Amino acid sequence: MENVVITVVGVDKPGIVAGVTKVLAEHEANIVDIRQTIMEELFTMIMMADISNLKGDISNLKQDLERLGAEIGVKINVQHENIFKYMHRI
């Protein structure tokens, strides 16, 4: 399994989760785990997605998710799991 970590942060509004999962489905990425919370008006989500069968490459997925984020007013970040773990090691 090859995973990416996707983080989403912004003002809460309907359709954020639906938009992100739609892009992932279009790229044939499979959601392995998802956690989200809303603190007052702030929406935060972190998910792990398996990209072993990714349609296209990771840069296309990143571009499409970043484009979605700009459209709906949230910040979406995509990192390969290994990079994420390396950057956040203790």
Annotate the secondary structure layout.
Layout: E1 3-11, H1 16-26, E2 30-39, E3 42-50, H2 58-72, E4 74-80, H3 81-87
Question: How would you describe this protein?
Answer:
With 90 residues, this protein is of the alpha+beta class. The protein has a single domain, classed as ACT domain (Alpha-Beta Plaits, 2-Layer Sandwich), CATH 3.30.70. Helix content is 37%, strand content 39%. It has 3 helices and 4 strands, in the order βαββαβα. A 4-stranded antiparallel β-sheet has the order 2-3-1-4. Helix 1 runs antiparallel to helix 2. Pfam families: ACT_6. It comes from Methanococcus vannielii (strain ATCC 35089 / DSM 1224 / JCM 13029 / OCM 148 / SB). Belongs to the UPF0237 family. This is UPF0237 protein Mevan_1534.
CATH class: Alpha Beta
N→C terminal distance: 24 Å
Strand segment tally = 4
Q: What is the CATH superfamily classification?
A: ACT domain
List the secondary-structure elements in sequence, H or E: EHEEHEH
CATH T-level topology: Alpha-Beta Plaits
Mean pLDDT: 92
Largest sheet geometry: 4 strands, antiparallel
As for the number of domains, it is 1
Query: So how many helices?
Result: 3
List descriptors.
ACT-like_dom_sf, 39% strand, globular, four-stranded antiparallel sheet, 90 residues, alpha+beta, Alpha-Beta Plaits, UPF0237/GcvR_regulator, single chain
Quick take:
By secondary structure, the protein is α+β, with helices and mostly antiparallel strands. The chain is 37% helix and 39% strand. It has a single domain (3-87), classed as ACT domain (Alpha-Beta Plaits, 2-Layer Sandwich).
